[in-house]
């Protein structure tokens, strides 16, 4: 039999002893002993992230020469030059174009493919593993393979077109087609990655809302649009955010396949900054371009983070 607790016995207890912690009370992380474990990560982050950013900012406001000497402080002269540089605006346009096209297509195709991958069918795990092969392959290798596929004379792409009676296409030599060719390669490589994240999200959705929609007589499309997509929005936002950071700083595949050509048609901000710093030997102006790229990444990532927080409410 449980012994009853008297009111006087409860009054003799130490204040707060045995009582659950009050909501809203902030616990000092140092008192909990968290900082000794977090300090190495903070130091590594400061050394590997914050220090290079600070050094890049210093380069962008100075006159650094290719031989390593610094001619002095320039202030915002490099930024003024950048905003007056037509090639900068062209690189920004190409960057935004590739970002928008690749992200939209990869999300839509990833949503359809993710639904297929979420179905319980024999061999589903094997299929998922095979679909991830493009995403886990090095981008340099992907660029070399597609460079051979899109070769205008010996490439498999034009040979397939010739079989169906279509004239050969200059995939990487035409300024109007080259950006779409680069987008095609990125879509082929990263759509399975989006699909895998979306498939995991679909499989984690609760069943009750779909059962309720079926009882109400909703069709499959209405259920997917009014029930499935709203529930899947946080997962879609995270997947798009992950691809956003990579797409805005798109570099390796482009440099392997076109090096920013033809006629700067695929010259993104990252490629333009690399060519400026290591080909034209202008490190200070290249640092200015990379700061502009950093601002663009932070702005776009901030928008997606805001949407993710809003969707999680």
Automatic annotation (TrEMBL):
Pfam families: BPD_transp_1
Region named Disordered: 1-25
The ABC transmembrane type-1 domain, residue ranges: 92-304
Bias (Low complexity) ranges: 9-21
Domain of life where this protein originates: Bacteria
Record keywords, A-Z: Membrane, Transmembrane, Transmembrane helix, Transport
Name of the featured protein: Sugar ABC transporter permease
């Amino acid at each position: 039999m449980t012994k009853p607790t008297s009111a006087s016995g409860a009054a003799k207890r130490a204040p707060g002893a045995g009582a659950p912690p009050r909501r809203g009370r902030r616990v000092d992380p140092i008192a909990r002993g968290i900082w000794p474990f977090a300090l190495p990560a903070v130091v590594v982050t400061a050394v590997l992230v914050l220090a290079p950013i600070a050094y890049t900012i210093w380069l962008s406001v100075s006159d650094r020469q290719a031989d390593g000497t610094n001619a002095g402080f320039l202030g915002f002269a490099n930024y003024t030059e950048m905003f007056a540089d037509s090639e900068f605006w062209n690189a920004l346009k190409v960057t935004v174009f590739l970002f928008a096209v690749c992200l939209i297509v990869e999300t839509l195709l990833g949503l359809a493919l993710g639904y297929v991958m979420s179905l319980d069918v024999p061999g589903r795990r094997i299929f998922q593993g095979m679909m991830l092969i493009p995403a886990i392959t090095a981008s340099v290798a992907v660029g070399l393979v597609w460079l051979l596929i899109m070769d205008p004379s010996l490439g498999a792409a034009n040979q397939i077109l010739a079989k169906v009676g279509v004239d050969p296409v200059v995939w990487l030599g035409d300024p109007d087609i080259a950006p779409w060719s680069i987008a095609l390669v990125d879509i082929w490589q990263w759509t399975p990655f989006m699909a895998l994240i979306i498939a995991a999200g679909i499989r984690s959705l609760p069943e009750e809302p779909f059962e309720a929609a079926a009882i109400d007589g909703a069709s499959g499309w209405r259920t997917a649009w009014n029930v499935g997509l709203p529930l899947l929005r946080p997962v879609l936002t995270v997947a798009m955010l992950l691809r956003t950071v990579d797409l805005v700083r798109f570099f390796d595949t482009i440099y392997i396949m076109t090096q920013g050509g033809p006629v700067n048609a695929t010259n993104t901000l990252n490629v333009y900054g690399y060519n400026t710093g290591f080909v034209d030997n202008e490190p200070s102006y290249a640092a200015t371009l990379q700061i502009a790229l950093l601002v663009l990444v932070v702005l776009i990532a901030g928008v997606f983070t805001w949407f993710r927080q809003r969707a999680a409410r």
